[in-house]
Design brief:
CATH topology: Rossmann fold
Oligomer: single chain
Number of helices: 14
CATH superfamily: Alpha/Beta hydrolase fold, catalytic domain
CATH class: Alpha Beta
Structural class: alpha/beta
Strand order of the largest sheet: 1-2-4-3-5-6-7-8
Largest sheet: 8 strands, mixed
Number of domains: 1
Strand content: 15-25%
Order of helices and strands: EEEHEHEHEHHHHHHHEHHEHH
Length: 317
Amino acid sequence: MEKILHKNLYVNGINMHIAEIGEGPAVLFLHGFPELWYSWRHQMLSLSSKGYRTIAPDLRGYGDTDVPPYATSYTAFHIVGDLVALLDALGLDQAFLVGHDWGAVMAWYFCLFRPDRIKALVNTSVVFHPRSPSRKPVPSLRARFGDDYYICRFQEPGEAEEEFARVDTARLIKKFLICRQAGPLCVPKEVGFGGSPDTIITLPSWLSEEDVNVYATKFEQTGFTGGLNYYRAMDLNWELTAPWTGVQIKVPVKFIVGDLDLTYNTAGVKEYIHSGTFKKFVPFLQEVVVMEGVAHFIQQEKPEEVSQHIFDFIQKF
């Protein structure tokens, strides 16, 4: 870990922190919520030892990267703009792309907007959802899962932040990272995201107190608004991406998901993946891997296996 280099670059109007190690073809890693570049530490060390230059930014709103205050600054165009500018600043024409959670969503957008910059994509956890021409995402989720669905609970600026502030940050991080609810995450206000403070949380073998403290320390400094703004920009993304309705993802893709991931167990997702519909929208989808007994934070829970899956795919190109 001490060999990983850290630098700050001015890209697309913001200061962005990146972690980097290795030399060779570039692999760009995109983290999700509530995470940091640190989520990819295992994959960076593994792939850099195999001849790759691994790069993991703190995305806009996270960690040591700037945190614009308003949700309107967190559209897919802002995030992909940051990443294209990052490749430019690093002198890279192309890179392999790896995403997880919101990083996976932004990886799909990256390939939609600028496929010329991506050699191949390994995406985890979140499938490509083609844009519905008639339904905005948040009202659709509210109608389907109710007001307690976590994405709906995140929409009102300041509300989730106030709730999070009442919970110890390390406890909140633990609750998110080790959640193994295989299905829609609904959190009534009377229960709260922290759960009962009397409940003891036992960490799994793949997550240490030291790891938790890396996240907790940064989120105590920055707050959660940056990460929550990705959710708050969902309907705006829908409005702005109307010209891309029906456009396919035209880069080579490998998709990896855990069979206990709440995204995989959302109604209709398994059928979408395995019926061939997913491949209709992602025609160069070459592999789908469903890892048994693994939940949402797959790259941390099964680091060696995920690193090997990434390497097995990108070495073909």
